[in-house]
Amino acid sequence: MKTNRLKKSLLGITLSVSLFVSISIMGAPQAAHAATANTTTTAASTSVSGKAGSIIALGKNYLGVRYNFGAQKGVTSSFDCSSFTQYVYGKNGISLPRSSQAQSQVGSYVPRNQLQPGDLVFFYSPIHHVGIYIGNGKIMHTYGSPGVTISDMNSGWWSTHYKTARRVIK
Question: Which residue numbers delimit the NlpC/P60 domain (predicted)?
């Protein structure tokens, strides 16, 4: 009985410390990005301003975070593709539905040759993958073993499985 109580106490302490550290890490970078007019996207090597820049900067804070299909909304220890986009857009005042299929129905259609940083890009038919266009043919998204990563959508698998894009930033 004492062992059970000790385990529960240690679990509670661990969760509390993890939550505190997560909030501390997320709090400072967001304020810094929001205060700048232009945010440079390192992978895209272009200057992205405003809400798109804030979304991309926040997303980059999670590069390497593991992929977990069906990850819970609001959890930042793991993401699936649509929980990742839902989270980073939500933190920037844009509410998105939970699934990539549902996300592909919001905002307005964008032709592939008119993509802008911050646009949502979708893959497969039927749609079941979403990423964030960050400029210069690059997308930030999460899948499999790399977790949150940046990929070139104009070559290889991502190019041949591209389906559509939506603009949700006004």
Answer: 49-169
